[in-house]
Automatic annotation (TrEMBL):
<dbReference type="Pfam" id="PF03992">
    <property type="entry name" value="ABM"/>
</dbReference>
<dbReference type="InterPro" id="IPR007138">
    <property type="entry name" value="ABM_dom"/>
</dbReference>
<keyword id="KW-0560">Oxidoreductase</keyword>
<dbReference type="InterPro" id="IPR050744">
    <property type="entry name" value="AI-2_Isomerase_LsrG"/>
</dbReference>
<protein>
    <submittedName>
        <fullName>Antibiotic biosynthesis monooxygenase</fullName>
    </submittedName>
</protein>
<feature type="domain" description="ABM">
    <location>
        <begin position="4"/>
        <end position="93"/>
    </location>
</feature>
<keyword id="KW-0503">Monooxygenase</keyword>
<dbReference type="GO" id="GO:0004497">
    <property type="term" value="F:monooxygenase activity"/>
</dbReference>
<dbReference type="InterPro" id="IPR011008">
    <property type="entry name" value="Dimeric_a/b-barrel"/>
</dbReference>
Length: 96
C-alpha cells in the first residue's frame, strides 16, 4: 500500500462561487472521516476567487477509489453539475 496525493481543482461559473463553496465545505467533514483519508483540505485561489483547490492525501489508490464512489461525493457531483465551469483532478505520488 503506498500513499498518494491528489490536487483537485473546481472553477465555479460566474455567480455560483458561494454555492460551490458551500457544497465543497459540506463534503470536507464526511470525507475526513473516510477510511484511508490522511488529509483533505479545501483552499481558495487568492487571485481567482472562482477557483477552489483540494489538497488531499490518501493511504492508497483503493482508498481514493472508495472515496470517489461514496454517497456524499456522488450527491455533491450531482448537485454542482450546473455550477462548475471546469474541474480537474491530478493524482500524484511523492518523490522526496
Amino acid at each position: 500500500m503506498s500513499e498518494i496525493a491528489v490536487v483537485a481543482i473546481s472553477v465555479a461559473k460566474p455567480g455560483y462561487e458561494d454555492r460551490l463553496r458551500e457544497a465543497l465545505e459540506g463534503i470536507v467533514g464526511p470525507t475526513r472521516k473516510e477510511q484511508g483519508a490522511l488529509q483533505y483540505d479545501l483552499h481558495r485561489d487568492v487571485q481567482e476567487l472562482r477557483r477552489f483547490v483540494f489538497v488531499e492525501r490518501w493511504e492508497s489508490q483503493e482508498a481514493l477509489a472508495a472515496h470517489a464512489k461514496s454517497a456524499h461525493i456522488r450527491a455533491y457531483k450531482e448537485a454542482v453539475a450546473d455550477w462548475v465551469e471546469h474541474s480537474e483532478v491530478r493524482v500524484v505520488s511523492k518523490i522526496v
